Amino acid sequence: SFKVYKKITVEKSLENRALIKSAIKNNALFREYVEDQLECFIDVFAPKTVEDGDVVFRQGDRGDVFYVVQSGSLDSFVDVGEGDEKTEQQV
Question: Would you tell me how many other CB atoms lie within 10 Å of the CB of residue 77?
Fold first, then answer.
């Protein structure tokens, strides 16, 4: 809940701050925020290491996390169809 939010700043290098900023500054979710507000968002981004084959998130998960890929790549799939016709499609 935002009523009980406590900002926890995660230390990061200037290079990582720049990477995050480049990823969010033109993103529709962050476009309306001014520089100081973007810096506050950048402060709280935390690293997450994933291995080949790990699932980062699934369709239908709560959308309360924003990911920036520092290195490597991710495949993205969506469920299409219903019932016996339901399949995954890479996007």
Answer: 13
| 46 contact partners, CB below 8 Å, separation of at least 6 | 10
**Residue 30 CB burial class (10 angstroms; 0-12, 13-18, ≥19):** middle
Q: Write the pLDDT tens digit of every residue in 39-48.
A: 999 999 999 9
43 burial class (0-12, 13-18, 19+ CB within 10 angstroms)? middle
In terms of residues, how long is the chain? 91
The C-alpha atoms of residue 9 and residue 71 are separated, in whole angstroms, by: 22
CB atoms within 10 A of CB 68: 16
Question: Global pTM?
Answer: 0.79
